[in-house]
Write a structure and sequence with these properties.
The chain is an alpha+beta fold. The strands form four sheets. Strands 3, 4, 5, 6, 11, 12, 13, 14 and 15 form a nine-stranded mixed sheet that branches. Strand 19 and strand 20 form a beta hairpin. Helix 2 crosses helix 3 and helix 3 packs across helix 7. The protein is globular.
Length: 509
């Protein structure tokens, strides 16, 4: 199995048997319907089933076929956007809650692994943060002080040990694991508790409950079947089936992040998590291989906004060059892939009650590069909300919170600027200029077309206008997809939507 997210397959799919589940053939009812079978969706479903609720999980693809299967699988309570930045935006108390929630997420994953006997290489280890070459000299000191104010007990400044070769911060009690093995075990534990999983169908619409009219919430699937429930949780990385909530897309931006994997001699690289604060930044970890005396070195970075591919078109090449310089012992590159990161304008995920016209709809999005812990936080928080319990993180992650800072203004200005492509010419004048297994945007009178030539030479023409908010899609040569530069929707070469917020495919032209 491989992820539907793109042409490149991550290392997590090697040697693993991901179970398959049948589509839903007739409408059904449940206490809770969860849309999305990644770590956020399955954690939420598992915890709700443990509460004794009947839960149905829906996904268009197999479990873990979205971003959970394309992560580098760092489990960190050291905030990706830096503690001093979270404190600046949210204050000391909410910075403390941010650390508390991510630490609790790692503890929860560890507990579930132990209780359900899930073998997924879960290991506690240290994480090391290095400054970037242009960072001010006091950056590590500022982060150390902010981390301690946030309640991080096991953090210290070291003279060496990070990616930059000089001073760094060491964060204790971080972790790593194999995300797909964990999801397979989680799904098995969920179904043993009576949970139901259905895959192979797209959820096209979600409507909340209307208590005044005694109407329950509804998830409408392709083919006319539906799930009626007291509560619906949308955990699809972007809240794409929620068609009456536009505001969430203005508060986050979609980025592609790249990962390569190469074998290194066992013991040649410390078994730890590494991050730097460079621009572009990098993140590094090991994954044990079954081969004797070798580990897989996973290195990520080179982020850019989705649909705004760098002019040199070589993020993998740059990442490989940086890795070879830092780790000259690495062997050939065995894996290359990218994943999608939802960057909220204030550094924290959106988890909780969705701001929809009707009630009992919950959402988990805005992972900010920490999707595995944010996804687990979503399970803990949403379970409490549905169970009617107070949760100290509710306001911190409230999806309806107002944001108005320079990041919010900048990202929305960037999205608006992409509409200029409606007025420009095409990238090529003739289909003859498009090589096999490549795509390009062409102008046809007043229309813009997304034209793909498949490996056999057949031409596929679709509208180049994203079905979400009418932006012009761009060809992604790394993952062989059409990506929207405004809000991150993605389509396969033949126009089929693979990631929201778009719900509909690109129309044939």
């Amino acid at each position: 199995m491989k992820s539907a997210d793109g042409a490149k397959t991550s290392s997590w799919y090697t040697g693993i048997d991901v179970p398959t589940y049948r589509p839903l053939v007739k409408s059904t009812k449940a206490d809770v319907c969860v849309v999305g079978a990644g770590i956020a969706g399955l954690t939420t479903a598992y915890l709700l089933a443990a509460e004794g609720l009947s839960v149905v999980v829906l996904d268009e693809g197999p479990i873990g076929s979205g971003q959970t299967g394309r992560t580098s699988a760092h489990l960190a309570s050291a905030i990706d956007d830096r503690f001093f930045e979270i404190e600046r935006l949210h204050g000391k108390e909410r910075s403390r809650l941010a650390h508390e929630s991510h630490a609790a997420a790692i503890d929860t994953i560890e507990r579930i692994c132990n209780e359900e006997k899930i073998s997924c290489d879960f290991t506690r280890l240290d994480g090391f943060l290095s400054p970037g070459p242009s960072d001010p000299p006091d950056l590590l000191d500022r982060e150390l002080a902010a981390a301690r104010r946030a309640g991080v007990a096991d953090v210290e400044k070291q003279k060496t040990g990070g990616l930059a070769g000089g001073p760094c911060l060491r964060f204790g009690r971080q972790a790593r694991f194999h995300p797909l093995r964990y999801l397979v075990g989680l799904a098995d534990a969920f179904t043993k508790r009576g949970g139901r999983i259905h895959t192979g169908q797209r959820v096209r619409d979600v409507q909340g409950a209307d208590p005044k009219k005694e109407k329950r919430a509804v998830a409408q699937l392709e083919g006319g079947v539906r799930v009626t429930a007291e509560h619906i949780v949308v955990a699809t990385n972007t809240p794409s089936p929620i068609n009456d909530w536009f505001g969430i897309y203005t508060k986050q931006a979609s980025y592609r992040s790249y990962v390569i994997g190469a074998a290194v001699p066992r013991g040649s690289v410390a078994d730890a998590l590494f991050w730097d604060n460079a621009d572009p930044y990098h993140y590094v970890r090991l994954q044990p291989l079954r081969e004797k005396e070798k580990d897989l070195l996973l290195v990520g970075g080179e982020d850019h906004k989705t649909g705004q591919f760098p002019e040199d078109g070589a993020p993998f090449t740059r990442l490989a060059a940086w890795t070879r310089e830092k780790f000259p012992m690495m062997g050939r590159i065995r894996f290359r892939w990218s994943g999608q990161v939802q960057e909220p304008a204030d550094g924290l995920a959106f988890v909780g009650r969705a701001l929809t016209a009707r009630e009992n709809v919950y959402v988990a999005t805005g992972d900010s590069g920490m999707g595995l812990t944010h996804g687990t936080i979503a399970g803990l928080l949403i379970t409490d909300l549905i169970a009617g319990r107070k949760n100290p993180w509710e306001k911190l992650y409230d999806p309806s919170r107002k944001i108005m800072n320079k990041e919010f203004v900048s990202e929305n200005a960037n999205a608006l600027a992409q509409y200029k492509d409606l007025l420009t010419g095409g990238e090529v004048k003739s289909v003859k200029d498009i090589p096999p297994d490549c795509g390009a945007v062409m102008r046809d009178g007043l229309k813009k077309l997304a034209v793909y030539r498949d490996p056999a030479g057949k031409i596929h023409r679709h509208s180049a206008i994203c079905t979400h908010l009418q932006c012009v899609v761009q060809w992604n040569p790394a993952e062989k997809s059409w990506d929207c530069p405004c809000h991150g929707s993605r389509f396969d070469p033949t126009g089929k939507v693979v990631m929201g917020p778009a719900v509909d495919d690109l129309p044939s032209a």
